[in-house]
Amino acid sequence: MAIKIEPNDDSEKANISNNIKKYKKMAESAMFNVNLANFHGFSLRYLEHPLIAITDSNNMKKINGKRMTAPHMVYNHDMLEIYTAGNWHDDPLVQFINYYQVAEYLFNYVPNELLFEEVQEKIASPKFSYTDKSDVLELSHLIADLNRKNDKEVNSLRMVLNQYVKYDDLKKSLPDKLINYYRDEIPSFLKNTSEPNQIKFSINNLKNSDKVYGKMASRLYAVRNCLVHNKEGENHFNSLIDDESLKKEVPLMKAIAETVIIKYGTTI
């Protein structure tokens, strides 16, 4: 698959040459939109040897006859690379980790933005005085408390979810069967979790309770840790027996990754 840009005249050709980075970003956005449109069996990604992929008949299922409009947004390049890497694999472990890393990309950005907003509001207040010792100490304690909370990765994940992922985003992307599953069950490889109810959550309650974000973050973080760590006394993931259970967690993480990419993007 190629995206071809043909200039009408020399002046337009020069304009395209000067704005080639812009067109590359639009091409990336078009690739993401194709992946997002769920062309079954067809995931686009930059390839060193693209013919190997596009000549595989399995990759061409259901793509013929479908039309897509030009993208109206551009997205973060690094996020797109991570996301499409997840799309390119059938292994649920690789998929989950890549989709998780899309959210992880903002683990510094979101807490820092929230910290900036709170501190800015504090020092901009006419009631705050930089010469008042109690005011300055209160501000320093606020910063210390927020930084202490931000040190925990699960809290950063919760903040990213709270900032970017809303009820409608997940409701439209996930079938009711999975929504009920996240509410009632936990993955088989997390069976030794001491408080299983803390990683069960109802997507339908996202509109009414911030606690749901905490439970969702705890579940995703627990799954991620189980996949990347193998410590004595902790939950273990065994791909030979736990793949089917993990496959139920992947759609949630993928829907979150897609939502984060879109909302972090910018309109053209």
Compact summary:
With 268 residues, this protein is an all-alpha fold.
Key descriptive features of the protein:
two-stranded antiparallel ribbon, 2 strands, mainly alpha
String of helices and strands: HHHEHHHHHHHHHHE
Beta-strand percent range: under 5%
Low-confidence runs (pLDDT<50, min 5 residues)?
A: 46-65
Walk across the major sheet and give the strand order. Answer: 1-2
Overall mean confidence score, pLDDT: 79
Q: Tell me the overall shape.
A: flat
Query: What kind of sheet is the major sheet?
Result: 2 strands, antiparallel
User: Oligomer, anyone?
Assistant: single chain
Number of helices: 13
How many runs of DSSP E, i.e. beta strands? Answer: 2
Kindly, what is the distance between the CA atoms of the first and last residues, rounded to a whole number of angstroms? Answer: 23 Å
What would you report as the Rg, rounded to the nearest angstrom?
Answer: 22 Å
Specify the structural class.
mainly alpha
Helix residue percentage: 55-70%
Describe this protein's structure.
The chain is mainly α. Helices cover 59% and strands 1% of the residues. It has 13 helices and two strands. Strands 1-2 form a two-stranded antiparallel ribbon. Helix 5 (92-104) packs parallel to helix 13 (250-264) and helix 6 (109-124) packs antiparallel against helix 7. The chain is flat and about 65 Å long. The two termini are 23 Å apart. Mean pLDDT is 79; it is low at 46-65.
